[in-house]
Fold Purine nucleoside phosphorylase DeoD-type.
Amino acid sequence: MSTPHINANPGDFAKTIIMSGDPLRAKLIAETYLEDVKEVTNVRGILGFTGKYKSKDISIMGHGMGAPSASIYFHELMTTYGVKNFIRVGSCGAISDNIQLKDLIVAMGASTDSKINRIRFLDHDLAAIANFDMLQACIEVLKTTTINYKVGNVFSSDLFYRPNENDYTLMAKYGVLGVEMEVNALYALAAEHQCRALALCTVTDHITQHEHLTADERRTDLHEMVKVALETAIKF
Ligand SMILES: O=P(O)(O)O[C@H]1O[C@H](CO)[C@@H](O)[C@H]1O
Ligand SMILES: O=c1cc[nH]c(=O)[nH]1
């Protein structure tokens, strides 16, 4: 059994998965932190791995950029492979002055300019929210670290390059902490399929202060977030 986008065998995935847009970030995480690691899928270069972290089975996989791509992987993992617990480790852009490059944002909920959750939810506005138990477990982990983190709303955008920069002023006024592209989809699919989901995002761009990490740093400078995700993951 495989799906159009995942060529893993039944049982290849753990119940708990850590995912990022970049499949090479997934590979780096798997090779750095997992023992007995095995590549379980590679369709279209979207790599997935399963191994052990502190004796617990954990999978790591890419999901591509944007909600349409990511939704394909979330859906197939939830419906065909029985994955139940999802933690996204992403990058994001900050839009307010009290958040700095490399800070960590824990996405309690996701606002969006995307219509995908309205397609899913009778054209109504779904409150796309994190699983409370996972959020709470993650905060307990974070309290044992020195990481600068903030918990709140992210904005999942269909556009990486937004034509009107004034939009960010309004988002900041409403308390949006960071802008990324997939959490709205992850939280809605988790609700639909009775899964747990949580997203962490490291600030790789300060959009309004015009500061950016390089492409390489977006893969290699996210270890603090990854360690928090792994320590949270093994509690489920
Ligand atoms: O770093 P990842 O996980 O890919 O997440 C963010 O980075 C990508 C854009 O550069 C989008 O996928 C966005 O959500
Ligand atoms: O979606 C994203 C991801 C990283 N940085 C951004 O500015 N936007």
